[in-house]
Amino acid sequence: MPISSFRETDLADGALRRFFERLGSQVTARVWRLGFASRFLGYMVLHSGTALRRFPLTIREIYFAGVLSLIIILVSGLFVGMVLGLQGFNTLERYGSSEALGVLVALSLVRELGPVVAGLLFASRAGSAITAEIGLMKATEQISAMEMMAVDPIARVVAPRFWGGVISMPLLAALFSAMGIFGGYLVGVKLIGVDEGAFWSQMQAAVDVREDIVNGVIKSFVFGIAVSWIAVFEGYDAPPTAEGVSGATTRTVVTSSLAILALDFILTALMFTGGNGR
Amino acid sequence: MHDSNIVEVENLWFGYDPRQPVLRDVSVSIPRGKVVGIMGQSGCGKTTLLRIIGGAHMPTRGGARVLGALTHDLDRDGLYAMRRKMGMLFQFGALFTDMTVYDNVAFPMREHTDLAEEQIHDLVMMKLQAVGLRGAAGLVPSELSGGMARRVALARAIALDPQLMLYDEPFAGLDPISLGVIGRLIRQLNDSLGATSIIVSHDVAECLDIVDHLYFMADGRVVSEGTPQSVRDSREPFVDQFVHGKPEGPVPVNYPAPPYDADLELSGD
What we know:
The complex is a heterodimer. By secondary structure, chain A is an all-alpha fold. Chain A has helices at residues 3-46, 49-53, 55-65, 70-94, 101-139, 142-148, 153-192, 196-206, 209-237, 242-272.
């Protein structure tokens, strides 16, 4: 057998082996990280006593994650509702049922757009800030300093931010939906001239508290847990350098957004298909 | 084990990766009431040793007996109980940037004691007065100079009157005045609190002025020790090179590299 063919086989073998080695190590690293993130969540929930007992700590985080996100949530909600009003009217008018505009706007917002868009905005506005803050605290040794003062940073720094996010998210989603419905009303009733009574009464008749509103709140609550978990974990796990923190912040926004969309699909499939006859 | 020693490190090995030990067979004794310096080049393992004494890392082999207990025998609660008797000053202060100077110093008191806010106020003012920054109580860390931040961090570290103070590069990046002030404060606070202090540093002059005893580390080992006077007079090649900042000596200044002419492609042809 010629020597050259030996070499080619060796090379091919080597490249293949390296490919599988890389693939294997990347998969293992991701599974390991997911396991670490799960243990981190468990530890954080178990050590949430401080965050709940000393509730002002959590209220402060609700202010940073929730209150400071209000402007972007309210303005976005208004515009999304106004667009829904315009688009919905154009479509409904073709079938002569423009009075159902209120139903369309309300159901779209309460079931889907409210939790999902508010969740995406929350991830970019508050999630990124939480990651960057915890990451920078780590990079500037504030987390180590706390450890050396015998104060558990997960209980004192991380858990209040997590619960602040979890509590803020459903409230923000509700405000987003309310503002969106108001936007739809402005465009549909005030601008286009859909009958005001029909707009509200049809909405009232069609939107069910249990099926629509509670399900929407559950969604936003689940998104709140997902985004806050990802944000605090990425911050806590960030390499303590400038690149490390910036990379972690980006990962928070990307991972949270994907998690929201994937969870939304799963939750919608569980909540709104089969069984309830809708 | 000697009762008068507050910290005893015996035949300690440590490595983040067990195949590459950062500390090799280190033994150090810190007598109660003294200020002890641990000196060496950057990367020689001195900060790692300090972190092991603080219980932030666990030894691979050997052990560190701190305040009467072996750190690797302690669970989380035990470690936290030990750390309540310690104070640590980090290299750049590590002040909490979302709190004022006042709240930074009050932080350990609020976390670990049930003192009323008026008592905490008095204690914070006393600690800030001790470092000369009572007037800066209302400032936030971003408004402080490097030297002031270090002093606030010092006030925070002594908030609960620790028995053992750990200083990680307390002089790094300070102007000469701040440097002298911090140096004097470390000595004064140690003596007035009846504490014991460990200073990890590479600032020879400052350290020699305030410590009672010195350890020299190189490449993860303790290579020499002695009093400041014996260190000044030492003829040991490493101590001589380090104390007088000489480029020639047992510690190579250049990173290992292939032959120079090979890198410049000056081969014969």
